[in-house]
Write a structure and sequence with these properties.
It is a single chain. Helices cover 41% and strands 22% of the residues. The chain is of the alpha+beta class. A hairpin with a 4-residue loop joins strand 1 and strand 2. 21% of the residues are buried.
Length: 97
């Protein structure tokens, strides 16, 4: 079973994620990514999709032209879990490059 992060874990882990914000309403983390155009944004989404599939953890996201909004929450845990932190870090590594 996947467990939701407790307050101590959140306080430790969330500051390590640059650019991610807490979405209290969904008990998750969110980040907006901007790109030069639609093709670059879609390419990013494709790379994230491959990471997510490998991790068996899929984001909630939307794309408008050159913008991709991602929300990570673990439905099976009822909120933020280590799976979300791990996927956020993997996404950040894609951006870093």
């Amino acid at each position: 079973m996947i467990e939701k992060l407790d307050e101590t874990q959140r306080a430790e882990l969330l500051p390590t994620l640059e650019g991610w914000t807490i979405d209290a309403a969904r008990d998750g983390i969110a980040r907006r990514f901007g790109f030069g155009d639609f093709v670059a944004a879609f390419g990013f989404m494709t790379r994230v999709a491959l990471l997510a599939e490998k991790a068996d953890h899929h984001p909630e996201w939307s794309n408008v032209y050159n913008r991709v909004d991602i929300l990570l929450t673990t439905h099976d845990a009822g909120g933020l879990s280590m799976r979300d932190i791990d996927l956020a870090r993997a996404i950040d590594r894609l951006i870093a490059g």
